[in-house]
Write a structure and sequence with these properties.
alpha/beta
């Protein structure tokens, strides 16, 4: 198998913490050949740590030996960087949120399409084995008719000087685009396309320009409903990042599968849809099958 030679643009955060050491480096079919960051120290440090070439200029990275570019920079520079990569004939994996607005996203898609390169977005929740199992159970009919789903993702994110996620001009928004994009995409993977969206955003705790709270009501094309709640103002250990999927034959309930960690518990409770009405509404806290 020939190896895909990767270049990385944006060496801090998720790239250095997860994608390079856990994704690119261990894979048998990939090779990290070059890195670039707007900060010289980060570029040099990551290049030395992972044995790659350090590029002071993004154009030089694109002119190098890479076949594909992973872009993990602030959202406001995604559009330019994706288009330049496509025009250089490089395949692109870009972190989410994809752009500041729909128009930017469409420009990126068209640039990659017209230059014949592959284009992916870093919506990693789709690749979690338990999430894929939940999707398969729903699509196979084991949960009956889809009824409702909820995805929750929260963290404590206080005011930090220069944090690009805290200013819509650089991040496109706060919890809705940064966390909500993961959750909405996950629910669409499980229940199918959304036909309408209603949203409320607030700054309830933090005073930065981006919202620190958002709640989204989704209506799916199959008739099911969904809720996505994302918060930057709840302590990390207090939010269980729950995924709940309900149908006429049962439910799938999970904690901790949404997020960056490997931990998480998911349980399927299947009962069938032919049971009679139980006036006592009795419930057994135990039971279910762990996925």
């Amino acid at each position: 198998m020939s190896k895909v030679k990767w270049g990385v643009c944006g060496c801090g955060g998720i790239a250095r913490r997860r994608t390079i050491p856990e994704g690119i480096m261990p894979a048998a079919n990939t090779e990290l050949v070059g890195v670039h960051d707007r900060t010289e120290d980060a570029t040099v440090d990551v290049a030395q740590e992972f044995g790659a070439e350090a590029y002071a200029d993004y154009g030089e990275l694109l002119a190098g030996a890479c076949d594909a570019v992973y872009i993990a920079t602030p959202v406001n520079v995604h559009c330019d960087q994706v288009i330049r990569a496509a025009e250089a004939g490089k395949h692109v994996l870009c972190e989410k949120p994809l752009g500041l607005n729909v128009a930017e996203a469409e420009r990126m898609v068209e640039a990659c399409r017209s230059n014949g390169v592959k284009f992916g977005v870093g919506l990693m929740m789709r690749f979690h084995a338990q999430h894929q199992a939940a999707r398969d159970m729903v699509q196979s009919g084991k949960l009956g008719k889809p009824v409702f789903a909820r995805a929750q993702l929260s963290c404590w994110y206080p005011l930090i000087e220069g944090a690009w996620r805290q200013d819509p001009a650089t991040g496109g928004g706060g919890t809705l685009v940064d966390l909500g994009s993961h959750c909405i995409d996950l629910l669409e993977m499980i229940f199918g396309p959304v036909r309408s969206v209603h949203c409320v955003t607030r700054n309830l705790v933090h005073s930065y320009k981006s919202e620190d709270s958002s709640v989204v009501l989704l209506e799916f094309e199959n008739g099911a409903m969904g809720v996505v709640d994302t918060l930057f103002n709840v302590p990390d250990a207090s939010s269980k990042n729950r995924l709940e999927v309900y149908g006429s034959k049962g439910s799938i309930l999970a904690e901790g599968t949404i997020g960056q960690g490997e931990a998480g518990v998911m349980t399927a409770i299947l009962e069938g849809d032919d049971a009679g009405y139980d006036a006592q509404q009795s419930r057994d806290a135990a039971g279910g099958v762990e996925i």
